[in-house]
Amino acid sequence: xxxxxxxxxxxxxxxxxxxxxxxxxxxxxxxxxxxxxxxxxxxxxxxxxxxxxxxxxxxxxxxxxxxxxxxxxxxxxxxxxxxxxxxxxxxxxxxxxxxxxxxxxxxxxxxxxxxxxxxxxxxxxxxxxxxxxxxxxxxxxxxxxxxxxxxxxxxxxxxxxxxxxxxxxxxxxxxxxxxxxxxxxxxxxxxxxxxxxxxxxxxxxxxxxxxxxxxxxxxxxxxxxxxxxxxxxxxxxxxxxxxxxxxxxxxxxxxxxxxxxxxxxxxxxxxxxxxxxxxxxxxxxxxxxxxxxxxxxxxxxxxxxxxxxxxxxxxxxxxxxxxxxxxxxxxxxxxxxxxxxxxxxxxxxxxxxxxxxxxxxxxxxxxxxxxxxxxxxx
Length: 378
Prior knowledge:
mainly beta, Porin, 16-stranded antiparallel β-barrel, 2 helices
């Protein structure tokens, strides 16, 4: 049985227990601090994630979807706090709105230092225009509201650190320009990941629905188009969807899939909430397909799970218990086939003020504005 760094697990679990002890006489935790004209807002979470896979992958707690074993393998157990996350934003109002954002975790590749930089970028906003430069989420990754790399991303609600088959978009170095026109948002970006990629996105927030149209083009004759949507069917039920059709965009899909061939991806899901029980449920089905190559032909995954908020406190943060079951299949063009079942269990403590996936969208709809993240101008 593999447990990763045991000492790190004990440290994070101790911090979790201390953070969830409520002391009536204690002062509430401070979630912002000001240094001159700059406001600093920390965020993130401490997490302990354990899982069981029906086939050994050797990838730790983050699943490599494109490397599911094709033959019989012994099962595998793993546990680690490495998906714990640190985030910080710094905002300044001077001739417009300035924002710097930093985000990291400890899921670096094997053989390297555990620290991994997820996002590091700066952004300037004025008069409905926003200009961003740095490492941020690709425009290929859909949003739940507006266009942002910090909040409102449609990353699904899964427990799996590698997200889900069927999603598109990774974190890339880029320069991005965004323009807001009331309920409409338009963006274009030059992104770099093993060759340049130009992306254009048009999004609209209309009542109970958020929809996006995406176009992309880049090196190696890469071309593609995509559609995505988040629709509130009922105040407690949402449908989420993304489809991408491309020539050459396989490396930008969750998998990833082979390059220089036609590659397509699709994910559909339902997300439900039960506020009185402090419970959120999710179910997703996704697939990624690539035309003939020497590698993968089809990846297919479906997942179900829940998040249960143990204690809800604006002052002291949110401890949460989560679980997920998923089945993942891999088909290769040479004719190979592999399947794997994964059961994950997670204990997470989110720092005060940290938005959980899907939570900010509910707030946005109730307030009918975009001020949902750590930076209140969003």
